[in-house]
Write a structure and sequence with these properties.
By secondary structure, the chain is α/β, with parallel strands linked by helices. It is 32% helix and 23% strand.
Length: 282
Amino acid sequence: MSTVAHAQPAAEGAGPPQPPTEEQALGYACRGVTVSMPGPRGKRAILSALDFEVEPGEIVMVVGRSGTGKTTLLRVLGGLVPASAGTVLLGGQVVSGPPASAVTVFQDYAHALLPWRSVRRNVALGLEGRRDCSRVERDQRVARALEVVGLAARADDRPWRLSGGMQQRVQIARALALQPRVLLMDEPFGALDAMTKASLQDQLLEVHGRTATTIVFVTHDIDEAVYLGDRVVVIDGQPGSITQEIPVDLPRPRDQLATKERPEFLELRRRVYDAVGGVHGG
């Protein structure tokens, strides 16, 4: 897999996307959220009585062992799976279906892109047919999103001509073109090599710095959780429940080498490791 280049600067005159105002920024409030799903022996509890909040503009990393309901939680936040009990609020409004202000980015980038469409037209997909977005505005949004993720020069390529990291950047650009107030990310870098993953992590932080989008990010990678997050939420058990919330008080901007060499980073990494692994012997 080829090495991913760093994001290119925005086109002259376009300027970076502006952070949302306080009225635009959205946060979550979850109150007693429980999820049960049908199984071969009847209903099976997946999540149990979750109570937590996500502040507007915050990056919250969700970690835990496999089978503890992390992806289910993300789908509940995205309105893709209904809560069996409890309430999910986004910006003070009850989530009863997919909110227009939230976009989900999944790990399986290869199947998320249409191979017969160019990169540009893949990014435009979510805007097509929208009456509130003219063709001129759609083209501007697509161009700006491709600039942010450093793929403006590959806009006319087909996805199969790109590396895995670049394909994932196309999926992220498609999400950014929708101008979401919330990004829900389900292990989006999990299948990538270490160098590509590091590059995309830094690009995500750059995008967040430009847009102040609220991000909820599921990962199995403890280093990734500490490096990206403002807070790490640990889910454990079957059904899953929140066992710890660990604030990440590391300065920004962050650097792959300098940040990870800080004693505070190593201490936080150990705390998260113990919270995830300590329950079954570390």
